[in-house]
Amino acid sequence: RSESARMPAVEAGLIAPLVGLLRSPDKEKVRHALRAIGNICFDTDAGREAVLKCDGVERLSESLLSLVSYTPDDIELVQSACGCCLNLMTGHEGVTSKAIETEIPSSLALIVRRSHTHIQLCRVILMVVSTFLENSPGEGADALREAGWVTATVRLLGDVKDDGIKYLLVETLSAAAQNDLWKLALAAQGCIYHLLRQFDLDKDGPNKLADELSGKVVDLIVLLLTGDESLNILFAGGTGPMVPIVFKWVKSQDKKLLAPGALALGNMARSDENCAILLEKGVMNDLLPLLESTTEEDGNVLHAALSALRNLSMPASSKQLMSTEKVHLKVSPLLSHPFRPVQFKALGTLRMMVDKQEEVAKTLGTDPTVTKQLREMCESPDVGIMSEAQRLLAALMKNAPSDSVANGLLDAGAARPLVNMCDSQHTIMLHEAVIAMNIMVVACKDKAIGALKAEGAVVVLNDLPSQAEFGEEFAANVKLLTDALNSS
After folding, report:
1. Are 460 and 423 contacting, i.e. CB atoms less than 8 angstroms apart?
2. pLDDT(16) > 60
3. Helix (H, G, I), strand (E, B), or coil: what is residue 309?
């Protein structure tokens, strides 16, 4: 165990004979050899390289495979083998890659199924699994899934009593669930039911977990909803187990559940069909209070609620309902929120809401408070906010092509950000800017032409790269605008 003795042990050539002992019929010798290898290789890459050179990972795999049906008398030997595996793999991608090629993942899955009452052994095995995922996120996740680790973790989740193991298990599952196939498999095997039962998250009252673990569990559940196929299982046409739970979260007295609840609803609202179901279940009644009742400090809640509203506003049928409910009037005040991510999400949500909704665009485009705020945001040092503010101005003009909106935008100084959009490297922003300026000129000719020319629109349009590469429609719109500006 002594750090000063590790390198001398490696240099003395002790690794090879120790690896040789792993095939001994004497279990006590094997146990001592495993402990020695693990101690020598702890945080010592030279030792790990020596293990690789003498096929030590393969011998370790053989030892673990022989222990999948271990007896109570073998528990120390199993712990030594798993501990050796952990020390070899930690921080070393080469050992991890070699271990993936062996029976180590499947042997550990079989061992852990019988070990939920052995706290220390469970802890070490879960740490090994986490190391697979950390050192080799792609291949490691695939190897573990193919080795039966989805079933193993779900069973362990249902059986484990120790809070420390629960914590490690949730962390391990969170790392594994970054992989979409893991998300799907966990959803299919009922992981959600165990999470809800183990951690009391299906109840209205406070749960029994410490705050940190409770947060990790909730985040894991939200993560499982981000996969398209896993979402289909968990949403199940609105009848899935998570739907009523998430509706409870966004109304919870526990503020830590509000943002995850809104995020989960946003994940569910990723298809027109799901949006229709959620709206029918009254999701607006639960999301809108989050915009009205949260304090400035609750930026994460607002951001999550806006994300959900943005997704819900994508289908045409949803836009009409949200227009009737005047949701835009509840979102627009958040443009001045001090938390920049909230500003950004509010801009994107409003841009989605005004699409093909003339009355919504007209209401916002003729509101001096909104147009002034947007004009200021077009000068933001945050490029994302600046671009979204420019795009929203253009969208207001496009979707409400009236002189009142044109005048409102021009009075707010919108000519400059629309001209500036023509410097964007994003083709879609060029299209949006040119369309908006054309509509503005038609709606409010003299005033619009004067403002645009004052901001250098003619020079900017003439300096655009070859318009042919953007398509005939764009080229025609640029010519139309240029001719209008030059004719006055």
Report:
1. yes
2. yes
3. helix
Q: CA-to-CA distance for 399 and 300, rounded, in angstroms?
A: 30
* Rounded average pLDDT over 333-355: 95
Residue type, 89: M
What is the identity of the amino acid at 293?
S
Euclidean distance between CA atoms 315 and 43, whole angstroms? 55
Confidence band for 1, pLDDT divided at 50, 70 and 90 = low
Q: What is the pTM of this model?
A: 0.86
H helical segments located in 332-382: 340-354, 358-365, 368-377
Residue 207, pLDDT > 50, answer no
User: Burial level of 151, CB count in 10 A (0-12/13-18/19+)?
Assistant: middle
**How many C-beta neighbours within 10 Å does residue 104 have?**
28
DSSP alpha helix (H) spans, 136-210:
137-146, 149-159, 163-176, 180-188, 191-199
Q: Which of 6, 59, 71, 73 is nearest to 30 (CA)?
A: 59
120-165 confidence digits (pLDDT tens): 999 999 999 999 999 999 999 999 999 999 999 999 988 888 888 9
Give buried/exposed letters for 353-371 (b at 16+ CB in 10 A, else e): bbbebeebbbbbbbbeebb
**Cβ neighbours of 112 (radius 10 Å):** 24
Query: Dihedral (C-alpha) 121, 122, 128, 130: value to the nearest 10 degrees?
Result: -160
Query: Would you state the structure tokens that stand for residue 201, as one six-digit string?
Result: 């998250």
d(CA 350, CA 392): 7
Residue with tokens 């526990």: 254
Report d(CA 195, CA 217) in Å as an integer. 7
Task: Output the six-digit token pair for 461.
Answer: 């349009």
Closest Cα to residue 326, out of 293, 357, 303? 357
- Compute φ and ψ for 128, nearest 5 degrees: -65, -45
Q: Which residues contact 202 (CB under 8 A, 6 or more apart)?
A: 196, 245, 248
Q: What are phi and psi of 293, to 5 degrees?
A: -105, -10
Break the chain down into helix, strand, coil percent, rounded to 5.
75, 0, 25
Q: Are 485 and 446 in contact (CB under 8 A)?
A: no
Token pair 């705050």: residue: 211
